[in-house]
Amino acid sequence: MIRRQYPVRPLPRRFSEAAPAGSSCASASRPQLAAPSIGIYSRVGNKGTGTEKGRGCRLCVEMYLVGVLLLWACGAAHALDNDTYWGERERILAQEQVAILGQDQVLTAEEQVVNSLLMKAKMLEMDAGFESLNYLPAKNFLAVREQIEASDVFQIVRMMPKGVALHLHDTTLASVAWVVEELTYWENLYMCYTSEGQLLTKFMANPDASCTWQLVSEVRATYPSDDVFDQELVEKFSLITANPEEKYPDINSVWQAFEHGLIAMTGMVMYRPAWEAYLYRVLQEFAADNVLAIEFRGTLPPLYEIDGTELTPADSVAVYRNVSQRFIADHGDEFFSVRFIYAPTRHVDVETVWNYVTIAKELRSKFPDFVAGFDLVGQEDLGLPLKDFLEPLLSLSEGEVHVPVFYHAGETAWLGMSTDENLIDALLLNASRIGHGYAISKHPQAKQMAREKDVAIEVCPVSNQVLMLVPDLRNHPVASLVAEGFPMVVSADDPATWGAQGLSYDFYEAFLALGGAKADLRFLKQLAINSIKYKQPGRRSQS
Q1: 386: Cβ contacts below 8 Å, ≥ 6 apart
Q2: What is the pTM of this model?
Q3: Looking at the annotation, which residues are catalytic?
Q4: CA-to-CA distance for 130 and 58, rounded, in angstroms?
Q5: Exposed/middle/buried for 11, CB within 10 Å: 0-12, 13-18, 19+?
Q6: Taking a C-beta distance cutoff of 8 angstroms, is the pair 308, 314 a contact?
Q7: Per-residue DSSP letters for 49-103?
Q8: How far apart (Å, rounded) are the C-alpha atoms in residues 40 and 61?
Q9: N or C, fewer C-beta in 10 Å, the chain?
Protein backbone atom coordinates (compact mmCIF):
# COMPACT_ATOMS: atom_id res chain seq x y z
CA MET A 1 0.00 0.00 0.00
CA ILE A 2 1.39 3.40 -0.97
CA ARG A 3 0.89 6.11 1.58
CA ARG A 4 1.21 9.55 0.10
CA GLN A 5 3.07 11.90 2.48
CA TYR A 6 3.63 15.62 2.38
CA PRO A 7 6.82 16.97 4.01
CA VAL A 8 6.34 18.75 7.31
CA ARG A 9 8.57 21.75 7.60
CA PRO A 10 10.60 22.02 10.88
CA LEU A 11 9.34 24.80 13.11
CA PRO A 12 11.50 27.45 14.78
CA ARG A 13 12.46 26.48 18.33
CA ARG A 14 9.90 28.73 19.97
CA PHE A 15 7.13 27.29 17.79
CA SER A 16 8.25 23.68 18.32
CA GLU A 17 8.00 24.14 22.06
CA ALA A 18 4.25 24.56 21.67
CA ALA A 19 3.90 20.76 21.25
CA PRO A 20 5.49 18.31 23.70
CA ALA A 21 8.36 16.21 22.36
CA GLY A 22 7.13 12.96 20.86
CA SER A 23 3.52 14.09 20.54
CA SER A 24 1.68 13.36 17.28
CA CYS A 25 -1.01 15.22 15.38
CA ALA A 26 -3.13 12.08 15.49
CA SER A 27 -3.40 12.32 19.27
CA ALA A 28 -3.45 16.10 19.54
CA SER A 29 -6.77 17.88 19.58
CA ARG A 30 -7.33 20.52 16.91
CA PRO A 31 -7.20 24.01 18.35
CA GLN A 32 -10.05 26.36 17.52
CA LEU A 33 -8.46 29.51 16.19
CA ALA A 34 -9.65 33.04 15.79
CA ALA A 35 -7.71 35.76 14.06
CA PRO A 36 -5.90 38.14 16.47
CA SER A 37 -7.78 41.34 17.03
CA ILE A 38 -7.03 44.83 18.32
CA GLY A 39 -8.69 43.82 21.57
CA ILE A 40 -6.10 41.05 22.09
CA TYR A 41 -3.23 43.45 21.43
CA SER A 42 -4.50 45.94 23.98
CA ARG A 43 -5.05 43.34 26.69
CA VAL A 44 -1.54 41.84 26.36
CA GLY A 45 0.41 44.93 27.33
CA ASN A 46 -2.00 47.57 28.48
CA LYS A 47 -0.11 48.18 31.74
CA GLY A 48 3.44 48.17 30.43
CA THR A 49 5.66 50.40 28.43
CA GLY A 50 5.44 50.81 24.69
CA THR A 51 8.24 48.22 24.34
CA GLU A 52 6.30 45.72 26.47
CA LYS A 53 3.19 46.35 24.45
CA GLY A 54 5.12 45.61 21.28
CA ARG A 55 6.45 42.36 22.76
CA GLY A 56 2.91 41.41 23.74
CA CYS A 57 1.68 42.02 20.22
CA ARG A 58 4.48 39.92 18.71
CA LEU A 59 3.82 37.11 21.21
CA CYS A 60 0.13 37.07 20.29
CA VAL A 61 0.88 36.89 16.57
CA GLU A 62 3.47 34.12 17.13
CA MET A 63 0.96 32.06 19.16
CA TYR A 64 -1.62 32.44 16.41
CA LEU A 65 0.86 31.36 13.74
CA VAL A 66 1.84 28.34 15.86
CA GLY A 67 -1.77 27.17 15.77
CA VAL A 68 -2.09 27.75 12.02
CA LEU A 69 1.10 25.81 11.30
CA LEU A 70 0.03 22.96 13.59
CA LEU A 71 -3.27 22.68 11.74
CA TRP A 72 -1.42 22.64 8.42
CA ALA A 73 1.03 20.00 9.65
CA CYS A 74 -1.74 17.81 11.06
CA GLY A 75 -3.71 18.00 7.82
CA ALA A 76 -0.64 17.00 5.83
CA ALA A 77 0.11 14.06 8.11
CA HIS A 78 -3.46 12.79 7.66
CA ALA A 79 -3.40 12.45 3.86
CA LEU A 80 -5.71 9.59 2.81
CA ASP A 81 -4.24 6.28 1.77
CA ASN A 82 -5.50 4.74 -1.46
CA ASP A 83 -8.13 2.48 0.09
CA THR A 84 -9.57 5.22 2.27
CA TYR A 85 -9.61 7.70 -0.61
CA TRP A 86 -11.55 5.43 -2.96
CA GLY A 87 -13.89 4.36 -0.19
CA GLU A 88 -14.71 7.97 0.67
CA ARG A 89 -15.17 8.82 -2.99
CA GLU A 90 -17.60 5.95 -3.53
CA ARG A 91 -19.51 6.88 -0.38
CA ILE A 92 -19.96 10.50 -1.51
CA LEU A 93 -21.06 9.51 -5.01
CA ALA A 94 -23.47 6.92 -3.60
CA GLN A 95 -25.04 9.57 -1.37
CA GLU A 96 -25.46 11.89 -4.35
CA GLN A 97 -26.95 9.08 -6.43
CA VAL A 98 -29.70 8.27 -3.95
CA ALA A 99 -30.63 11.97 -3.71
CA ILE A 100 -31.48 12.26 -7.43
CA LEU A 101 -35.18 12.69 -8.09
CA GLY A 102 -36.84 9.28 -8.42
CA GLN A 103 -33.99 7.13 -7.10
CA ASP A 104 -36.23 5.60 -4.44
CA GLN A 105 -38.58 4.25 -7.11
CA VAL A 106 -38.55 0.46 -7.55
CA LEU A 107 -38.67 -0.81 -11.11
CA THR A 108 -40.57 -3.93 -12.08
CA ALA A 109 -38.84 -6.67 -14.05
CA GLU A 110 -40.34 -5.31 -17.27
CA GLU A 111 -39.29 -1.76 -16.39
CA GLN A 112 -35.74 -2.94 -15.74
CA VAL A 113 -35.57 -4.30 -19.28
CA VAL A 114 -36.82 -0.97 -20.64
CA ASN A 115 -34.36 0.87 -18.40
CA SER A 116 -31.47 -1.12 -19.81
CA LEU A 117 -32.44 -0.23 -23.39
CA LEU A 118 -33.13 3.39 -22.45
CA MET A 119 -29.82 3.91 -20.66
CA LYS A 120 -27.87 2.29 -23.49
CA ALA A 121 -29.44 4.73 -25.94
CA LYS A 122 -28.86 7.62 -23.55
CA MET A 123 -25.17 6.86 -23.06
CA LEU A 124 -24.64 6.54 -26.81
CA GLU A 125 -26.29 9.92 -27.37
CA MET A 126 -24.40 11.61 -24.53
CA ASP A 127 -21.06 10.15 -25.61
CA ALA A 128 -21.63 11.29 -29.19
CA GLY A 129 -22.55 14.77 -28.00
CA PHE A 130 -19.48 14.91 -25.79
CA GLU A 131 -17.20 14.06 -28.69
CA SER A 132 -18.86 16.15 -31.41
CA LEU A 133 -20.18 19.02 -29.24
CA ASN A 134 -23.47 18.53 -31.11
CA TYR A 135 -25.46 17.83 -27.97
CA LEU A 136 -29.11 18.54 -28.72
CA PRO A 137 -30.24 19.88 -25.29
CA ALA A 138 -27.45 22.46 -25.55
CA LYS A 139 -28.88 23.87 -28.77
CA ASN A 140 -32.00 25.93 -29.47
CA PHE A 141 -34.92 23.55 -29.79
CA LEU A 142 -36.20 25.37 -32.87
CA ALA A 143 -32.99 24.46 -34.71
CA VAL A 144 -32.78 20.80 -33.66
CA ARG A 145 -36.38 19.61 -33.29
CA GLU A 146 -36.13 17.21 -36.22
CA GLN A 147 -32.88 15.76 -34.87
CA ILE A 148 -34.58 15.19 -31.52
CA GLU A 149 -37.41 13.34 -33.23
CA ALA A 150 -34.84 11.01 -34.80
CA SER A 151 -33.27 10.22 -31.41
CA ASP A 152 -33.65 6.68 -30.04
CA VAL A 153 -34.08 8.15 -26.56
CA PHE A 154 -36.93 10.35 -27.79
CA GLN A 155 -38.64 7.40 -29.46
CA ILE A 156 -38.58 5.43 -26.21
CA VAL A 157 -39.78 8.41 -24.17
CA ARG A 158 -42.60 8.96 -26.63
CA MET A 159 -43.99 5.47 -25.93
CA MET A 160 -43.98 5.93 -22.16
CA PRO A 161 -46.96 7.02 -20.02
CA LYS A 162 -46.37 10.56 -18.76
CA GLY A 163 -49.11 11.22 -16.26
CA VAL A 164 -50.66 14.70 -16.28
CA ALA A 165 -49.63 17.86 -18.13
CA LEU A 166 -49.96 20.56 -15.48
CA HIS A 167 -48.57 23.71 -17.11
CA LEU A 168 -50.18 24.57 -20.45
CA HIS A 169 -51.67 27.66 -22.11
CA ASP A 170 -54.90 27.47 -24.07
CA THR A 171 -54.25 28.90 -27.54
CA THR A 172 -50.77 27.39 -27.98
CA LEU A 173 -51.59 23.71 -27.62
CA ALA A 174 -52.91 22.28 -30.90
CA SER A 175 -50.24 22.01 -33.57
CA VAL A 176 -50.04 25.13 -35.70
CA ALA A 177 -49.89 23.01 -38.85
CA TRP A 178 -53.32 21.57 -37.97
CA VAL A 179 -54.71 25.04 -37.25
CA VAL A 180 -53.57 26.30 -40.65
CA GLU A 181 -54.62 23.20 -42.59
CA GLU A 182 -58.01 22.97 -40.87
CA LEU A 183 -59.34 26.22 -39.42
CA THR A 184 -57.95 28.66 -41.96
CA TYR A 185 -59.87 26.84 -44.70
CA TRP A 186 -63.21 27.39 -42.99
CA GLU A 187 -65.67 29.86 -44.53
CA ASN A 188 -66.06 33.43 -43.27
CA LEU A 189 -62.54 33.72 -41.86
CA TYR A 190 -61.11 37.19 -42.34
CA MET A 191 -57.65 38.62 -41.80
CA CYS A 192 -56.04 42.04 -41.71
CA TYR A 193 -52.86 43.84 -40.66
CA THR A 194 -52.93 46.77 -38.27
CA SER A 195 -50.90 49.92 -38.88
CA GLU A 196 -48.22 48.40 -36.58
CA GLY A 197 -48.06 45.27 -38.72
CA GLN A 198 -49.93 42.99 -36.30
CA LEU A 199 -51.87 40.20 -38.03
CA LEU A 200 -55.47 39.77 -36.84
CA THR A 201 -57.92 36.97 -37.71
CA LYS A 202 -61.64 36.65 -37.03
CA PHE A 203 -64.72 34.79 -38.24
CA MET A 204 -67.49 37.18 -39.33
CA ALA A 205 -70.68 37.03 -41.34
CA ASN A 206 -70.09 40.65 -42.31
CA PRO A 207 -66.72 42.33 -41.66
CA ASP A 208 -66.79 45.39 -39.43
CA ALA A 209 -64.96 48.66 -39.96
CA SER A 210 -62.34 48.11 -37.23
CA CYS A 211 -59.72 46.98 -39.77
CA THR A 212 -59.23 46.48 -43.51
CA TRP A 213 -60.52 42.91 -43.47
CA GLN A 214 -60.00 40.46 -46.33
CA LEU A 215 -61.26 36.92 -46.66
CA VAL A 216 -58.42 34.49 -46.00
CA SER A 217 -59.50 32.41 -48.97
CA GLU A 218 -59.13 35.43 -51.26
CA VAL A 219 -55.69 36.35 -49.89
CA ARG A 220 -54.53 32.74 -50.27
CA ALA A 221 -55.61 32.81 -53.92
CA THR A 222 -53.16 35.66 -54.63
CA TYR A 223 -50.12 33.54 -53.63
CA PRO A 224 -48.15 31.31 -56.03
CA SER A 225 -49.53 28.27 -54.18
CA ASP A 226 -51.55 27.37 -51.12
CA ASP A 227 -48.43 25.88 -49.54
CA VAL A 228 -46.52 29.17 -49.75
CA PHE A 229 -49.35 31.07 -48.07
CA ASP A 230 -49.89 28.37 -45.46
CA GLN A 231 -46.20 28.34 -44.54
CA GLU A 232 -46.33 32.11 -44.06
CA LEU A 233 -49.27 31.67 -41.69
CA VAL A 234 -47.39 29.00 -39.72
CA GLU A 235 -44.56 31.46 -39.20
CA LYS A 236 -47.00 34.23 -38.19
CA PHE A 237 -48.76 32.00 -35.66
CA SER A 238 -45.62 30.53 -34.11
CA LEU A 239 -41.89 30.97 -33.48
CA ILE A 240 -40.96 28.15 -35.86
CA THR A 241 -37.87 29.04 -37.87
CA ALA A 242 -34.68 27.36 -39.03
CA ASN A 243 -32.51 30.24 -37.79
CA PRO A 244 -33.71 31.21 -34.29
CA GLU A 245 -30.51 33.02 -33.26
CA GLU A 246 -30.74 35.29 -36.29
CA LYS A 247 -34.49 35.90 -36.14
CA TYR A 248 -34.66 36.34 -32.34
CA PRO A 249 -31.39 37.97 -31.23
CA ASP A 250 -32.48 38.69 -27.65
CA ILE A 251 -35.07 37.82 -25.04
CA ASN A 252 -37.32 40.82 -25.73
CA SER A 253 -37.47 40.12 -29.47
CA VAL A 254 -38.48 36.49 -29.01
CA TRP A 255 -41.11 37.40 -26.40
CA GLN A 256 -42.49 40.08 -28.72
CA ALA A 257 -42.75 37.59 -31.58
CA PHE A 258 -44.33 35.07 -29.21
CA GLU A 259 -47.01 37.54 -28.12
CA HIS A 260 -47.66 38.67 -31.70
CA GLY A 261 -48.33 35.04 -32.64
CA LEU A 262 -50.80 34.65 -29.80
CA ILE A 263 -52.69 37.78 -30.86
CA ALA A 264 -52.72 36.68 -34.50
CA MET A 265 -54.37 33.35 -33.77
CA THR A 266 -56.60 34.12 -30.77
CA GLY A 267 -59.34 35.87 -32.74
CA MET A 268 -59.71 32.83 -34.99
CA VAL A 269 -59.76 30.09 -32.36
CA MET A 270 -62.12 31.97 -30.02
CA TYR A 271 -64.93 31.55 -32.55
CA ARG A 272 -67.06 29.05 -30.63
CA PRO A 273 -67.25 26.28 -33.28
CA ALA A 274 -63.53 26.74 -34.01
CA TRP A 275 -62.69 26.53 -30.30
CA GLU A 276 -64.69 23.33 -29.92
CA ALA A 277 -62.76 21.74 -32.79
CA TYR A 278 -59.48 23.18 -31.50
CA LEU A 279 -59.82 21.94 -27.90
CA TYR A 280 -60.90 18.49 -29.06
CA ARG A 281 -57.79 18.37 -31.25
CA VAL A 282 -55.62 19.42 -28.28
CA LEU A 283 -56.91 16.51 -26.24
CA GLN A 284 -56.33 14.12 -29.15
CA GLU A 285 -52.70 15.19 -29.46
CA PHE A 286 -51.99 14.83 -25.74
CA ALA A 287 -53.74 11.47 -25.54
CA ALA A 288 -51.69 10.28 -28.53
CA ASP A 289 -48.55 11.20 -26.57
CA ASN A 290 -49.63 8.95 -23.68
CA VAL A 291 -50.69 11.82 -21.44
CA LEU A 292 -53.56 10.85 -19.14
CA ALA A 293 -54.97 14.27 -18.22
CA ILE A 294 -54.29 17.99 -18.52
CA GLU A 295 -54.71 21.21 -16.58
CA PHE A 296 -54.54 24.19 -18.90
CA ARG A 297 -54.43 27.90 -18.20
CA GLY A 298 -56.39 30.47 -20.15
CA THR A 299 -56.81 34.23 -20.18
CA LEU A 300 -60.47 33.57 -21.05
CA PRO A 301 -61.04 35.90 -23.99
CA PRO A 302 -64.78 35.60 -24.71
CA LEU A 303 -65.92 33.00 -27.19
CA TYR A 304 -68.12 34.52 -29.90
CA GLU A 305 -70.69 33.52 -32.51
CA ILE A 306 -70.58 34.29 -36.23
CA ASP A 307 -72.81 37.34 -35.73
CA GLY A 308 -70.36 38.78 -33.20
CA THR A 309 -72.32 37.87 -30.09
CA GLU A 310 -69.89 37.27 -27.22
CA LEU A 311 -70.39 34.62 -24.55
CA THR A 312 -69.97 35.50 -20.88
CA PRO A 313 -66.95 34.07 -19.03
CA ALA A 314 -69.20 31.47 -17.41
CA ASP A 315 -70.78 30.49 -20.74
CA SER A 316 -67.33 30.25 -22.34
CA VAL A 317 -66.09 27.96 -19.56
CA ALA A 318 -69.22 25.84 -19.98
CA VAL A 319 -68.17 25.26 -23.60
CA TYR A 320 -64.65 24.30 -22.43
CA ARG A 321 -66.13 21.80 -19.98
CA ASN A 322 -68.62 20.33 -22.46
CA VAL A 323 -65.94 19.66 -25.08
CA SER A 324 -63.74 18.07 -22.42
CA GLN A 325 -66.54 15.83 -21.21
CA ARG A 326 -67.32 14.78 -24.76
CA PHE A 327 -63.71 13.84 -25.40
CA ILE A 328 -63.46 11.86 -22.14
CA ALA A 329 -66.66 10.02 -23.05
CA ASP A 330 -65.14 9.16 -26.43
CA HIS A 331 -61.72 8.17 -25.00
CA GLY A 332 -62.43 7.01 -21.47
CA ASP A 333 -59.96 4.15 -21.77
CA GLU A 334 -56.99 6.50 -22.38
CA PHE A 335 -57.88 9.89 -20.93
CA PHE A 336 -59.58 10.74 -17.66
CA SER A 337 -59.51 14.43 -16.74
CA VAL A 338 -59.37 18.02 -17.97
CA ARG A 339 -59.15 21.03 -15.65
CA PHE A 340 -59.03 24.76 -16.37
CA ILE A 341 -57.04 27.45 -14.54
CA TYR A 342 -58.24 30.99 -15.07
CA ALA A 343 -55.02 32.90 -15.80
CA PRO A 344 -55.40 36.47 -17.07
CA THR A 345 -52.50 38.81 -17.77
CA ARG A 346 -50.44 40.45 -14.99
CA HIS A 347 -49.88 43.62 -17.06
CA VAL A 348 -52.81 45.46 -15.48
CA ASP A 349 -53.75 47.70 -12.53
CA VAL A 350 -55.10 46.66 -9.13
CA GLU A 351 -58.71 47.49 -10.03
CA THR A 352 -58.56 45.04 -12.93
CA VAL A 353 -57.19 42.31 -10.65
CA TRP A 354 -60.15 42.84 -8.33
CA ASN A 355 -62.36 42.13 -11.34
CA TYR A 356 -60.31 39.00 -12.05
CA VAL A 357 -60.99 37.81 -8.51
CA THR A 358 -64.72 38.27 -8.96
CA ILE A 359 -64.67 36.20 -12.15
CA ALA A 360 -62.45 33.52 -10.57
CA LYS A 361 -64.81 33.07 -7.63
CA GLU A 362 -67.84 32.90 -9.91
CA LEU A 363 -66.21 30.26 -12.10
CA ARG A 364 -64.97 28.22 -9.16
CA SER A 365 -68.46 28.28 -7.65
CA LYS A 366 -70.22 27.24 -10.86
CA PHE A 367 -67.66 24.67 -12.04
CA PRO A 368 -65.95 23.30 -8.91
CA ASP A 369 -64.80 20.11 -10.63
CA PHE A 370 -63.59 21.80 -13.79
CA VAL A 371 -62.10 25.12 -12.72
CA ALA A 372 -58.97 24.29 -10.74
CA GLY A 373 -57.93 27.79 -9.69
CA PHE A 374 -56.26 31.08 -10.60
CA ASP A 375 -52.96 32.43 -11.92
CA LEU A 376 -51.47 35.59 -13.50
CA VAL A 377 -49.48 35.23 -16.71
CA GLY A 378 -47.27 37.24 -19.07
CA GLN A 379 -43.56 37.99 -19.30
CA GLU A 380 -42.65 38.17 -15.64
CA ASP A 381 -39.65 40.50 -15.98
CA LEU A 382 -41.83 43.19 -17.56
CA GLY A 383 -44.99 42.66 -15.50
CA LEU A 384 -45.98 43.88 -12.06
CA PRO A 385 -44.97 41.64 -9.12
CA LEU A 386 -47.52 39.71 -7.08
CA LYS A 387 -47.00 41.94 -4.06
CA ASP A 388 -48.53 44.87 -5.99
CA PHE A 389 -51.83 42.97 -6.06
CA LEU A 390 -51.71 41.71 -2.48
CA GLU A 391 -55.20 42.70 -1.30
CA PRO A 392 -57.18 41.16 -4.18
CA LEU A 393 -54.97 38.06 -4.19
CA LEU A 394 -55.45 37.54 -0.45
CA SER A 395 -59.21 37.71 -0.97
CA LEU A 396 -59.11 34.58 -3.16
CA SER A 397 -58.89 32.48 0.00
CA GLU A 398 -61.58 34.42 1.87
CA GLY A 399 -65.32 33.91 1.98
CA GLU A 400 -67.36 30.86 1.08
CA VAL A 401 -65.58 30.18 -2.23
CA HIS A 402 -61.91 29.33 -1.89
CA VAL A 403 -59.88 29.60 -5.11
CA PRO A 404 -56.59 27.63 -5.24
CA VAL A 405 -53.71 29.51 -6.86
CA PHE A 406 -50.90 28.38 -9.19
CA TYR A 407 -48.79 31.48 -9.70
CA HIS A 408 -46.13 31.99 -12.32
CA ALA A 409 -43.11 33.04 -10.25
CA GLY A 410 -39.34 32.99 -10.55
CA GLU A 411 -39.26 32.54 -14.34
CA THR A 412 -36.14 34.66 -14.58
CA ALA A 413 -32.36 34.65 -14.61
CA TRP A 414 -32.21 37.69 -12.31
CA LEU A 415 -31.47 37.61 -8.59
CA GLY A 416 -32.69 40.10 -6.01
CA MET A 417 -35.32 41.61 -8.32
CA SER A 418 -39.08 41.73 -7.89
CA THR A 419 -39.38 38.94 -10.47
CA ASP A 420 -37.52 36.26 -8.54
CA GLU A 421 -38.94 37.57 -5.24
CA ASN A 422 -42.37 36.64 -6.62
CA LEU A 423 -41.43 33.18 -5.34
CA ILE A 424 -41.70 34.38 -1.75
CA ASP A 425 -45.09 35.95 -2.44
CA ALA A 426 -46.38 32.87 -4.24
CA LEU A 427 -45.49 30.68 -1.25
CA LEU A 428 -46.92 33.11 1.29
CA LEU A 429 -50.10 33.26 -0.78
CA ASN A 430 -50.32 29.45 -0.50
CA ALA A 431 -49.73 28.53 -4.12
CA SER A 432 -50.53 24.87 -4.74
CA ARG A 433 -47.83 24.77 -7.42
CA ILE A 434 -45.48 27.39 -8.85
CA GLY A 435 -45.27 27.99 -12.58
CA HIS A 436 -41.66 27.63 -13.76
CA GLY A 437 -40.17 28.72 -10.42
CA TYR A 438 -36.60 27.74 -11.26
CA ALA A 439 -35.14 30.88 -9.61
CA ILE A 440 -35.96 29.13 -6.33
CA SER A 441 -32.52 27.52 -6.57
CA LYS A 442 -31.12 30.93 -5.57
CA HIS A 443 -33.45 31.40 -2.59
CA PRO A 444 -32.62 28.98 0.26
CA GLN A 445 -35.50 30.13 2.46
CA ALA A 446 -38.05 29.84 -0.35
CA LYS A 447 -36.67 26.42 -1.24
CA GLN A 448 -37.00 25.24 2.34
CA MET A 449 -40.52 26.66 2.58
CA ALA A 450 -41.55 24.90 -0.64
CA ARG A 451 -40.20 21.60 0.69
CA GLU A 452 -42.03 22.01 3.99
CA LYS A 453 -45.29 22.88 2.23
CA ASP A 454 -44.67 20.25 -0.47
CA VAL A 455 -45.16 22.80 -3.25
CA ALA A 456 -43.90 21.58 -6.61
CA ILE A 457 -42.47 23.77 -9.33
CA GLU A 458 -43.72 23.30 -12.89
CA VAL A 459 -40.64 22.97 -15.10
CA CYS A 460 -40.93 23.66 -18.85
CA PRO A 461 -37.42 23.16 -20.26
CA VAL A 462 -38.16 23.66 -23.97
CA SER A 463 -40.05 26.87 -23.26
CA ASN A 464 -37.24 28.20 -21.06
CA GLN A 465 -34.76 27.56 -23.84
CA VAL A 466 -36.76 28.89 -26.80
CA LEU A 467 -37.74 32.04 -24.89
CA MET A 468 -34.03 32.61 -24.19
CA LEU A 469 -34.17 32.19 -20.43
CA VAL A 470 -31.78 29.20 -20.35
CA PRO A 471 -29.95 28.72 -23.69
CA ASP A 472 -28.08 25.51 -22.73
CA LEU A 473 -30.37 23.22 -20.77
CA ARG A 474 -27.43 21.51 -19.08
CA ASN A 475 -27.02 24.80 -17.20
CA HIS A 476 -30.69 24.99 -16.21
CA PRO A 477 -31.04 25.90 -12.50
CA VAL A 478 -33.44 23.00 -12.11
CA ALA A 479 -30.59 20.52 -12.69
CA SER A 480 -29.35 21.21 -9.16
CA LEU A 481 -32.89 20.74 -7.83
CA VAL A 482 -33.16 17.38 -9.61
CA ALA A 483 -29.92 16.37 -7.88
CA GLU A 484 -31.56 17.18 -4.52
CA GLY A 485 -34.85 15.42 -5.26
CA PHE A 486 -36.80 18.70 -5.08
CA PRO A 487 -40.58 18.41 -5.76
CA MET A 488 -41.31 19.19 -9.41
CA VAL A 489 -43.29 18.27 -12.48
CA VAL A 490 -42.31 18.68 -16.14
CA SER A 491 -44.74 20.22 -18.60
CA ALA A 492 -44.87 21.76 -22.07
CA ASP A 493 -46.09 25.36 -21.57
CA ASP A 494 -46.84 26.40 -25.19
CA PRO A 495 -45.77 23.40 -27.29
CA ALA A 496 -47.42 24.38 -30.58
CA THR A 497 -45.48 27.66 -30.61
CA TRP A 498 -42.22 25.79 -31.24
CA GLY A 499 -43.56 22.83 -33.20
CA ALA A 500 -43.88 20.31 -30.37
CA GLN A 501 -46.81 18.12 -29.36
CA GLY A 502 -47.64 16.65 -25.96
CA LEU A 503 -45.02 16.17 -23.24
CA SER A 504 -42.43 13.94 -24.91
CA TYR A 505 -40.13 16.74 -26.05
CA ASP A 506 -39.90 18.23 -22.57
CA PHE A 507 -39.45 14.81 -20.95
CA TYR A 508 -36.62 14.13 -23.42
CA GLU A 509 -34.87 17.41 -22.59
CA ALA A 510 -35.33 16.90 -18.86
CA PHE A 511 -33.98 13.35 -19.06
CA LEU A 512 -30.84 14.25 -21.00
CA ALA A 513 -30.07 17.70 -19.58
CA LEU A 514 -31.66 18.16 -16.15
CA GLY A 515 -31.10 14.61 -14.91
CA GLY A 516 -27.59 14.22 -16.26
CA ALA A 517 -25.92 10.92 -17.04
CA LYS A 518 -27.08 9.09 -13.90
CA ALA A 519 -30.83 9.75 -14.05
CA ASP A 520 -32.55 6.66 -15.42
CA LEU A 521 -36.09 5.37 -15.91
CA ARG A 522 -36.79 5.96 -12.22
CA PHE A 523 -36.43 9.70 -12.84
CA LEU A 524 -39.01 9.65 -15.63
CA LYS A 525 -41.30 7.43 -13.59
CA GLN A 526 -41.10 9.87 -10.68
CA LEU A 527 -42.01 12.77 -12.95
CA ALA A 528 -45.14 10.92 -14.07
CA ILE A 529 -46.06 10.03 -10.48
CA ASN A 530 -45.45 13.61 -9.34
CA SER A 531 -47.77 14.94 -12.02
CA ILE A 532 -50.59 12.83 -10.60
CA LYS A 533 -49.68 13.65 -7.02
CA TYR A 534 -49.69 17.42 -7.58
CA LYS A 535 -52.74 17.49 -9.84
CA GLN A 536 -55.47 19.68 -8.36
CA PRO A 537 -58.40 17.49 -7.24
CA GLY A 538 -62.00 18.54 -7.70
CA ARG A 539 -64.28 19.19 -4.76
CA ARG A 540 -65.73 15.73 -5.13
CA SER A 541 -63.44 12.82 -4.28
CA GLN A 542 -61.41 11.38 -7.14
CA SER A 543 -59.78 8.00 -7.46
Answers
A1: 376, 393, 407, 409, 422, 425, 426, 429
A2: 0.83
A3: 411, 436
A4: 56
A5: middle
A6: no
A7: -HHHHHHHHHHHHHHHHHHHHHHHHHHHHTPPPHHHHHHHHHHHHHHHHHHSTTT
A8: 10
A9: C
